[in-house]
Amino acid sequence: MLYKVLKTATSLAINAVLGILSLIVVKFLLGLEIAITWVAVLVCAIGGIFGALVIIVLNYLKIAFI
């Protein structure tokens, strides 16, 4: 039981770090003004790099995370 909880928490932490790092890299390379908020961190934690791509597309289309 404890192993499953720790494995899930570790997976979410790794996804969050990879997602946020990809947002920061894209922010500096493409010059997008992405607001890194708790919602963005949560999307990245759950979705990982795919979640970061969703945030980037929504920001590029000026729909969210502006």
TrEMBL record:
InterPro entries: BofA
Stretches that traverse the bilayer: 12-30, 36-61
Keywords in alphabetical order: Membrane, Transmembrane, Transmembrane helix
Name this protein carries in UniProt: Conserved protein
